[in-house]
Design goal:
Blueprint: H1 5-37, H2 40-46, H3 51-58, H4 73-84, H5 90-113, H6 124-170, H7 175-185, H8 190-202, H9 207-218, H10 221-236, H11 240-264, H12 266-289, H13 292-295, H14 303-325
């Protein structure tokens, strides 16, 4: 029985389209995913940079322990930059703080010229104080946000990194090779951070000190147990693979419990967010629509004490709501 050539043509067209789609997928999607999976250290090494140069660029010295932002502002900023994983010099952060202060000051002057600035903020020294506070707080808050996101990502990747190390140790590799495998196989921030540890040990640093440096950079509580386990095993011996496998299991179970608690408390957290934002949103809308609603009573002698009392009570309520809907697991 002869096959109609039309059906063969349809089959060839279908096969050609399928191969075209698959080729586009591997050309664009897989390439993009591969770039995302590749950590910064591997990308720098593949670009032709020397290992020592990569180490100097990625490693950022920071003070041991928590720096006080009031007594040690420069050390505190250096610590934030290191924990955020950003490769920016300190002078650029200081320049950003200056730019934010200038922009806020100009914005207040523009609002004053348009008559949209409350009369208590009209004096120049109040505007200078607000601009100074904005300049000193907004860039560090951004760095803190980046550091918290990086810390959370590191904590999520830690069980997978421990599993890679366990498989490598059970295959007979030394602990240095197991860390090198993590640095090669995992994406940022885990791959880059373990790569820094491996490079530090390659250039003469002791393993305990390199791991302590990593612990200071990431500030992840679970990783401290890993550092202590490796340190104890180096001194006394034992089944390190079994210890790390147990740590991986405990960390995964605790993360699962934390996610379960967040799911059960999600309704309460959303309600708390609405209750906390609503007073400020309503106040801002009223002031935008009718500025005289507040400015007419600013001169009353009872305004400042009552306003201060209401604001303190609002902050106290926000704090109580925050403690009620956030649980430590």
């Amino acid at each position: 029985m002869a096959i109609d050539p039309t059906y063969l043509l349809y089959g060839l067209v279908f096969l050609a389209v399928l191969l075209l789609i698959e080729g586009c997928y591997y050309l664009f999607v897989e390439t993009t995913l591969a770039k995302r999976r590749k950590n910064r250290r591997i990308a720098m090494l593949e670009a032709g940079m020397e290992g020592r140069e990569v180490l100097q660029l990625l490693r950022r010295q920071q003070p041991r322990g928590a720096a006080n932002p009031l007594l040690q502002p420069i050390a505190y900023l250096e610590q934030l930059i290191a924990q955020s994983g950003m490769q920016v010099p300190l002078r650029r952060v200081l320049g950003a703080m200056l730019v934010v202060a200038v922009v806020v000051a100009l914005g207040l002057q523009g609002a004053l010229a348009l008559g949209r600035l409350p009369s208590p903020l009209a004096p120049l020294h109040f505007q200078a104080l607000i601009a100074l506070l904005a300049g000193l707080s907004l860039p560090p808050l951004y760095l803190s946000h980046r550091a918290a996101a990086r810390k959370r990502k590191f904590g999520e990747q830690l069980p997978d990194a421990l599993d890679i190390m366990v498989r490598s140790l059970r295959a007979g590799h030394p602990i240095n090779a197991a860390m090198g495998l993590v640095a090669k196989e995992m994406s940022d921030p885990m791959g880059t951070e373990f790569g820094i540890v491996v490079d530090e040990m390659t250039y003469g640093m002791e393993m305990d000190e390199a791991l302590e440096n990593l612990s200071d950079r990431v500030q992840v509580e679970d990783f401290n147990y890993v550092v202590m386990s490796i340190g104890i095993q180096r001194e006394t011996g034992g089944n390190l693979a079994g210890v790390l496998a147990g740590l991986s299991h405990v960390i995964r179970e605790r993360a699962r419990m934390f996610l379960k608690v967040r799911a059960l408390s999600s309704e309460g957290r959303i309600s708390a967010l609405v209750l906390c934002v609503l007073p400020f949103a309503v106040g801002g809308l009223i002031f935008a629509g009718n500025p005289g609603y507040y400015t007419k009573v600013v001169g009353d002698p009872m305004f400042l004490p009552l306003f201060s009392l209401a604001f303190v009570n609002l902050l106290l309520g926000i704090f109580m709501i925050y403690r009620m809907v956030n649980f430590r697991v």
